[in-house]
Amino acid sequence: MTTPTVTATATIASNGTVRITDGDGEHELKGKGLEQARQLLIQHFADQANLNGNTGITVDSTDPELGKSRLFIKRDSTVELLPIENAAEPEPAAEGETKPAPGDGHSAKAAPAPAPAPESQPTTRRAARPTAADFAASRPQAAVGPAQEGWQGALNALSGGSLRIAPGDKELQRRSWRASIQRGLAGHKTVVFINLKGGAGKTTKTYLFAAILGRVRGGNILAWDNNENKGTLGDRSMRSNHDHTAIDLLANIDRFATPSNAHELVNYVHAQGENKFHVLASQNTAADKEVVDGAAFTQLHGALKQFYHLMAVDTGNASTAGTWQAAVEIADEIVIVAMNKEDSVKTLASTVDTLVQMGYGDKLANGVLLITQPPVPSKNKAARVQANNERLERTKNHFAHYVRDVVVLPNDEALDDGGDIVYENLAAATQEAYLHAAAAIVEGL
Question: Which intervals of the chain are annotated as region Disordered (predicted)?
Answer without folding.
Answer: 85-147
